[in-house]
Amino acid sequence: MPIFRTKNENFFKKWSPEMAYVLGFFVADGNLTLGKRGNHYIEFTSCDKEILERIRKSLDSNHKISARKLQKENHKICYRIQVGSKIIFEDLVNFGFKPNKSKRLAYPKVPSAYFHHFVRGYFDGDGHVTEGFYKSRDRKKPKHLLFAGFTSGTKSFLEKLKYNLTKVRIVNGGTLYYSKGYRLNFSISDSLNLYKFLYKSLDNQLYLARKKKVFEKYLNAVVA
Fold first, then answer.
1. What is the pTM of this model?
2. Which of the listed residues 49, 71, 102 is the one where a domain comes to its end?
């Protein structure tokens, strides 16, 4: 007997902190696909199963989360959830997204009240943060560094994101360059401001703890 799959088909029709986060994560690690029989699917992929479980819960879904090994990344396990829904599919198309969107990524219009949730979702999908010590030749002691940023296959998307983050005075600078995709990186001060912005109000449990902990490891070391 087939299992009846549930989902909230109105999820993307009204803005909320959860909707904004999931939309941001979809922009980074989601896709729209059409089946051979005209079926409409929305899917999310991640190497962090926990975040897919939280997204599934937000969508009121009971769809299976499947696992597969990535051959090009030291056999790392990646997870995927695929939800069939023409309504959700069309709602995302209305935001400007298309199947196989990686190199033609649209930048959706996000209300200011939900902007940090949207950016946090995108950061958890295609963002990066690194902390560590670097010793230059002209310094006796290594310097503790923190760098954060975003990646994308679409340059214009990162340009728009940088503009909007600058517009609301979250960052002052940022370097956009190409290295196997486009990368937007920020220095220590802008990375710290980004941290405060991303996690200023966690109205839900939609965030990756491992990325948040990298920021906090740096902050704890500086305070100590």
1. 0.92
2. 102
